[in-house]
Amino acid sequence: MRHITGDCLVKKCITSGCVIIRNERALLLKHKKLNKWLYPGGHVDEGETHVEAALREAKEETGYNVRIIAKKRLGLQKRHSIEQPVPICILYENVYYRTGRHMHFDMVYLAKPIGRQGRVAKGESDSLRWVREQEIGDLDTYENVKSTLKYAFKAAKHGIMFNNPVW
Ligand SMILES: [Zn+2]
Predict the structure, then answer these.
(1) How far is the CA of 12 from the centre of ligand 1 (A)?
(2) Segments in the chain forming alpha helices (H)
């Protein structure tokens, strides 16, 4: 949905991503354009749920199939009403592209990798690395990413709001 604010075109988007943690390390990728270390994520495509987008982005950007870790609250699986996992946080981000400003409502999940690493999609990330909690402070990345990573480690360690990885 687009609307005009002043002379600036503003677009509202749902975006989705996940912090993939295994063996007390989080999987980060060096973003090509931004040149920062980020967890995988991106825009939710047409006809896709935010969970499907998080899984797809993880696969494309890191080569891993992942499962979302989140607690089931309702167990609702009806045809017209399907429970979705609760993210570890939701960030509202203002992102400035050449074509205008995007308001991003960014769902961030905790995830774990399943199986072996596959191929990273072409043109996605330059490099990948598994980062320990103690390394977050020195990472070349944004403050909101650092805060999110710290919380993800806490959530993974202490099981905040999670029980089984059922998604
Ligand atoms: Zn956007």
Answers:
(1) 6
(2) 50-62, 143-158
**Residue 97 · residue 34 · CB < 8 Å:** no
> What are the 10-residue block averages of pLDDT along the chain, 167 residues in total?
60 97 96 92 96 96 94 81 92 92 96 90 82 97 96 86 56
C-alpha 113 – ligand 1 centre gap (Å):
26
Q: Are 31 and 125 in contact (CB under 8 A)?
A: yes
Token pair 């007390």 is found at: 24
Domain boundaries, the chain: 2-158
CA distance 148 to 97: 23
For domain 2-158, give the fold: Nucleoside Triphosphate Pyrophosphohydrolase (3.90.79)
Contacts of 54 (CB under 8 A, 6+ apart): 16, 17, 18, 40, 41, 66, 68, 107, 109, 111
How much is the pTM?
0.88
